[in-house]
Prior knowledge:
The complex is a heterodimer. Chain A is built from 12 helices and 4 strands; from the N terminus they run ααβααααβββαααααα. In chain A, a hairpin with a 4-residue loop joins strand 3 and strand 4. Chain A is mainly alpha-helical. The N and C termini of chain A lie far apart (41 Å). By secondary structure, chain B is mainly α. Helix content of chain B is 40%, strand content 0%. Chain B is built from 1 helix and no strands. Chain B has one helix spanning 5-12. Chain B starts with a helix and ends in an 8-residue tail after the last helix. The chains are: A mainly alpha, B mainly alpha.
Amino acid sequence: SQQPDTKSLAKQMHEAYLKHFHMNKAKARVFLTGKTSTPPFVIHDMDTLQHAEQKLITQLLGNMASGDVSTLREREVEARLFLFCQYASVATVTELTEFAKAVPGFAALDLNDQVTLLKYGVYEALFALLASCMNKDGLLVAHGGGFITREFLKSLRKPFSDMMEPKFQFAMRFNALELDDSDLALFVAAIICCGDRPGLSDVSQIERIQESIIHVLRLHLLSNHPDNTLLFPKLLQKLADLRQLVTEHAELVQDINKTEDASLHPLLQEIYRDMY
Amino acid sequence: KEKHKILHRLLQNSSSPVDL
């Protein structure tokens, strides 16, 4: 009797995922495998970055405070890239919020609990989704318009050079699991609906939602990847890896925020403040 | 609540863009 429920929840989450995230793994793979008529512009050094920036700035202008745009040109390259990362993160947090609302039971939770789940879940979800846009050589950016190489990101000055390499290392292990967007939709829902985030008031209600998602995820993986029976436990292990990745990322961002002349977007400040 | 006012707003208003 659980079979129809399982299928409908998996389908519902997959549809919400395709609706709310402008980039998904299927789309990203088309760009990353060079199957588009206009291949992404490759950013691999300062010259190609400057060339790409004009386009990136135009794309971001709609989202960006005018003060940020006018001071952008005067900033050093690392600070500019940090700012771009922040705007991309804010956009993804907005998408994740809409996706979370589509998880059955989420919107009925206490509003403060919803905030807590997002505060602790969005970066874990973001890094899981970011893997779809990565291969061993680089990262797809600007809606598939650009590809920034891993080597270039590593060549930035410290501490900015330490920002992306751990995400690439995670992404290579994560991408080896060969999940598709329907799997990722349930995985992201499981990340968000997590009963052990600090400060939750109605833990049992969240655990009920979490259990139903995890149950559906397990069955969905068995039917979608019949040859890989260990996929479910492997994926649960990735939840722990993501938590560690976010802890380290939060420390790095707090460090950059203290030592560099780089301001943090108010939404991201809310998320990082008193996080761990 | 004040500490997370943008997250509150995102959760409550489905189509409101983040005030940047």
